# Entry
Amino acid sequence: MNDEQMTPKERRTKQAEEFTKKVGEKERRRIKGKAQKDDTVWFGLGMFGVVGWSVAVPTLIGTAIGLWIDRTWPSRFSWVLMLLILGVALGSVNAWYWVKKARENIIND
# Structure
């Protein structure tokens, strides 16, 4: 039965049930967050590390490959700069993936 076929009382009841479910879910997450209070500092530091390494490693690899290309085959284009930017972009996508995965784990647990 869609909303147009419901009586006003049925619509209010349905809205109240949906609201109750939303509040219950938020309260469940809040209680879960308080229960994991001791882990938040270490989790935060770990996430900083994951994000940092996720960006730093591809950036350094891109820079190293760019330096090697520039020394081996000199050209008018700076491969160091191009691969540095590519490394930062790939690292950012990688960091976004890890943060998204951690967020999903927090929500689903």
User: Anything to note?
Assistant: The chain has a mean pLDDT of 85. The helical segments are 8-35, 40-72, 79-108.
